[in-house]
Amino acid sequence: MKLITKYNRINLIATIIVLLAASICYYFIVRYVLIHQLDNTLKVEEAEIINYVNTNNRLPEATDYRDQHTSFEESNDSVKRKFSNIRLHNGHHHDHVAYREISFPININGKLYRASVTKSEEEMEDLSELIAIITIGIIILLLLILFITNRVLLRRLWLPFYNTLDSIKEFNLTNKKNVAIEKTKIEEFDNLNIAVNSMQIRILKDYETMKNFADNASHEMQTPLAILNSKLDLMIQEPNLNESQTKQLQSMYDAMSRLTKLNQSLLLLTKIENNQFNKAAPLRLDILINEKLSQLEDLIAAKHLHLHTDLKETTVNMDDYLADILLNNLLGNAIRHNNDNGSINISLNNNELKISNSGASFSLDDNNIFDRFKKGQNSEGIGLGLAIVKQICDNYGFSISYSYEANEHNFLIQF
Q1: Residue 69, beta-bridge partner list
Q2: CA 211/CA 200 separation, integer angstroms
Q3: The predicted structure's pLDDT at residue 395
């Protein structure tokens, strides 16, 4: 959920709660004012009745109008002046209607009377309903205006943030395109831009350091390794070596070869991670697979492997060098870790490449099979082959997975 959406929801809910609470309070305040006004009207009626009694020394005529009633009752008990709410039957509405009543004592010639004046609250209720409807309409209008205003203003307010975010998304180490920093009048966004700019400088510096290290290591380590290999070649060819010395030199030679491969593989991984292979071009993968199989014919024949292929014409956008390494590792593993008289099945279409081979009768750990220096039981090599395959797939947005089914090890690449 976007921050603006979340803020609008919270703001809208909070505003609705506040306005509803305020509306309820407003309704009761208006009702109190209207009742107070009605009480003042009843007080005027009371004053007129008392004035009439004082002037004429008799009770006025009782009245029974639609919205007002006046009545007088002789009382033997003391009468207290009070206001009350009552409901009386209304002939016009055939229903009981709410009335506001004032009752007060009147003494005429020693006789005590209870005078009552009631006035209908119907007009007051109609006015209250009208005020409530107007209030609800105003609240809905205010909420609508507030929602639209928030969306427009917040989008403009957060525009520098989204511009910075888009620039971060476009940031690329290989082309060293700087993150566009937009000057704003908001302190938090300025601080964010300063932090992003500082981070960008550190990343570029670290990238240059790693790139220089990879380049330097590639040149500096290859020379001594080549010298050691050539010296070992010469020593192995010495005629006076006994069997023990030959075995030791052969072990050293094998270790040196492994070290050379390890160096090359680590440098390759570093280059892939640093996006130094960013030139992709359309590549006929089916043709490349057939070429690799032709190169590996001797190894396949040496183990008497049965090869089955189903290659559809497939074009992918890849660097041809990385595609060659990808197939070398997968096909090399399928041959190296296979049984004598085993099988290799290769299928290819526009959606996926699947390489299956017989081999050890146990499943590899698919949780870490593509991790660096993770090798299966009785595996040879340096433990970087599948890590390189995974890195190449990640580089082009491919997905690779491993499974063990029907006594076959399956590697599936989905384009």
Answers
A1: 64, 118
A2: 16
A3: 82
Look over the chain and give the mean of its residue pLDDT values, rounded to a whole number.
81
For residue 301, the number of C-alpha atoms closer than 13 Å in the C-beta half-sphere is 6
Over the stretch 165-183, which tens digit does the pLDDT of each residue have? 888 777 766 566 666 677 7
Distance CA 235, CA 162 (A): 66
Residue after which a domain boundary falls, among 247, 273, 299: 273
Residue 278 phi, psi (nearest 5): -105, 5
CA nearest neighbour of 415 among 325, 331, 323 = 323
| 349 and 227 within one domain | no
CATH number, domain with residue 395: 3.30.565.10
